[in-house]
Design brief:
With about 260 residues, the chain is α/β, with parallel strands linked by helices. The chain has one domain: Rossmann fold (3-Layer(aba) Sandwich). The chain has nine helices and seven strands; from the N terminus they run H-H-H-E-H-E-H-E-H-E-H-E-H-E-H-E. It has a seven-stranded mixed β-sheet with strand order 3-2-1-4-5-7-6, sandwiched between helices. Helix 7 links the parallel strand 4 and strand 5. The longest helix is centred in the first third of the chain and has 14 residues. It binds S-adenosylmethionine. The site of S-adenosylmethionine has 23 residues, from helix 6 and helix 9. S-adenosylmethionine binds next to helix 6 and helix 9.
Length: about 260
């Protein structure tokens, strides 16, 4: 399936994107070290996320206190030992920006032979995912509540990950916010660092222009090769449950691009 060309975005689309990319929510570097939950951020000035406070339910707050000590991995600026953390040697999948964790916990449920790590900064999403981990008894799932860029560059061991998933990242649709898009050279450096040789980076977006941006960055990076051919989108994988953001994209009539690259 050839990748879609960028299209004009409708007013409804712009409205939906403001959910995650609203100017008023953008933290300045002066406030970004305040963090929430166990989030203790360092001095990176441009981030791909905003901290949204005040929407955590009592059950999620309880889950943060009760379950994070067991299923959370505290951020470390030194590589951690995955064998020690999981108590076994197993192929490991990493999902970045898992939102409420539906895909992350689905994979963990479907693939008990794999370790699954999810990285997310938003406390309500982390709490939601922790409750699912408890309910489904996913003892091979771990959550890191921290900036994924720092996790990729410092915390995860080099060549330790089989697959990195980046599903429906914030599109940061306004041109002046493009610098906040997570898919940048720095991100690809980090992904390349943690992926095993021939490991997979799977990105998906419903934002056509961000899809073009992803393709441009990945095709110009000789460390990655598109698994179905240069600049091509892959078929939507059957294993992936519909995420909240994918569903919203569908309602708005967006087509979804799945872009799957192998580390070469
Ligand atoms: C648009 S949402 C998509 C969520 C989910 N993947 C889905 O499809 O429903 C993007 C998520 O990525 C998270 N995020 C963005 N940048 C991040 C970063 N650098 N580290 C960790 N999480 C990040 C945001 O908090 C947000 O929950």
């Amino acid at each position: 399936m050839p990748a879609d060309k960028p299209t004009e975005q409708s007013a409804a689309v712009t409205e939906s994107a403001s959910d995650t990319c609203d100017d008023s929510n953008v933290l300045t570097s002066a406030t970004s070290d305040l963090g929430e939950g166990q989030l203790r951020l360092t001095s990176r000035s441009i981030r791909s996320f905003v901290i949204r406070n005040g929407r955590t339910t009592p059950a999620q707050t309880d889950a943060m206190e009760r379950l994070l000590p067991t299923f959370g991995l505290t951020y470390s600026d030194q590589p951690i030992d995955l064998e020690v953390q999981f108590g076994r040697t197993a192929p490991t999948v990493l999902e970045i920006g898992f939102g409420n964790g539906d895909v992350f916990t689905h994979i963990a449920q479907q693939e008990p032979q794999r370790n699954v790590i999810g990285v997310e900064v938003h406390t309500a999403g982390v709490g939601h995912a922790l409750l699912a981990i408890e309910q489904k008894q996913l003892n091979h799932a771990r959550i890191i509540q921290h900036d994924a860029l720092e996790v990729l560059h410092h915390m995860l061991p080099a060549e330790s990950i089989e697959k990195v998933l980046l599903l429906f990242p914030d599109p940061w649709h306004k041109k002046r916010h493009h610098k906040r898009r997570i898919v940048q050279k720095d991100f690809l450096d980090g992904v390349c660092r943690v992926l095993k040789p021939t490991g997979i980076l799977h990105c998906a977006t419903d934002w056509a222009e961000y899809g073009e941006w992803m393709i441009e960055h990945l095709e110009n990076d000789s460390r990655f090769q598109n698994i179905v051919g240069p600049s091509m989108a892959s078929e939507r994988p059957e294993w992936r449950p519909l995420t909240r953001f994918e569903a919203r994209g569908q309602r708005l009539g967006h087509s979804v691009l799945d872009l799957i690259y192998k580390k070469v």
